[in-house]
Inverse folding.
């Protein structure tokens, strides 16, 4: 069975843009045309492929097709790039005549917020020196980013998972080191008698979001084997890397922060470590589709090079 390319392009656009109207604008067609193409595709395959929500997401049946669509789009864009044509936008002959010499290749990548705020952007800048790309970054916790690969929503991801996702290759990047830090005033208020099971249970801690387990892991590490109960201190959700550091400086709570971000603040005395010399290392891996595309190889090389320069590597 051969899938109609216009239907597949519309399917990928709806999931990429999040709605039928946004997909129509990206493809320079009417929303009804997008809707008709999706309907025809679903009827042809006998499955509902898109869950009509805000934003639109792929159903379980649609996830495998989403990955297939992204791979085809990347390969087609790679082939047409020398002609200044971006297949995702279906340009007219007039727009092709006015197109730039090289059309941007669409790249959807998942990365955790702390990597994005520290070492990952230089990798993207290095890639831009080699390839014209249009980046679609998905910020996701390193423990959960591999799910986006399985769903076909991204072609590569910074992940804490060492085992490759099916159809993907994996490269070790290094370890991101996290330090438990707080302001001096916070330490005097909550840890005057030391960092122990009792004080940890009472002192507020900052968490990035509901997926963030770094603080819990650190508490388990330093309290075992003395801990007799699960520590459940008050929590503040601070969903931003630099805001997370600032929250610690301002005494909102203690938290685990990348060593490269807090090193100057530790040196100035604005922050102190809860337990000097104790840290948490998070191994990071680069998972990417096993697709032989020059831009994907270049992206991998740039990411690995930037990681070696900033992460802790054996």
């Amino acid at each position: 069975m051969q899938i109609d390319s216009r239907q597949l392009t519309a399917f990928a656009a709806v999931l990429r843009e999040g709605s039928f109207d946004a997909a129509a604008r990206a493809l320079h067609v009417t929303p009804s045309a997008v809707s008709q193409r999706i309907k025809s595709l679903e009827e042809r395959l006998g499955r509902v492929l898109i869950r009509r929500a805000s934003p639109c997401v792929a159903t379980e049946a649609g996830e495998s097709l989403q990955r297939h669509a992204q791979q085809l789009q990347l390969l087609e864009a790679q082939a047409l790039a020398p002609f200044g044509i971006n297949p995702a936008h279906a340009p007219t002959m007039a727009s092709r005549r006015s197109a730039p010499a090289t059309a941007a290749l669409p790249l959807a990548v998942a990365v955790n917020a702390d990597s994005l705020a520290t070492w990952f952007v230089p990798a993207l800048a290095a890639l831009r020196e080699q390839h014209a790309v249009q980046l679609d970054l998905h910020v996701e916790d390193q423990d959960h980013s591999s799910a986006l690969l399985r769903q076909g929503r991204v072609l590569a991801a910074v992940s804490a998972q060492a085992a490759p996702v099916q159809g993907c290759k994996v490269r070790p990047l290094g370890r991101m080191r996290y330090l438990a830090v707080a302001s001096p005033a916070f330490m005097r208020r909550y840890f005057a008698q030391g960092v122990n099971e009792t004080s940890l249970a009472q002192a507020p801690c900052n968490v990035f979001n509901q997926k963030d387990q770094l603080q819990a892991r650190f508490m388990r590490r330093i309290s075992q084997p003395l801990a007799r109960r699960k520590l459940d201190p008050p929590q503040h959700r601070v969903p931003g890397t630099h805001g997370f550091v600032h929250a610690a400086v301002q005494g909102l709570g203690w938290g685990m922060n990348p060593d490269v971000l807090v090193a100057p603040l530790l040196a100035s005395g604005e922050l102190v470590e809860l337990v000097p010399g104790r840290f948490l290392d998070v191994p990071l891996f680069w998972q990417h589709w096993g697709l032989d595309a020059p831009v994907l190889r270049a992206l991998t090389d740039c990411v690995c090079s930037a990681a070696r320069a900033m992460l802790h590597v054996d």
Notes: The first strand starts at residue 50 and ends at 51. The radius of gyration is 23 Å. Confidence is low (pLDDT under 50) at residues 90-101.
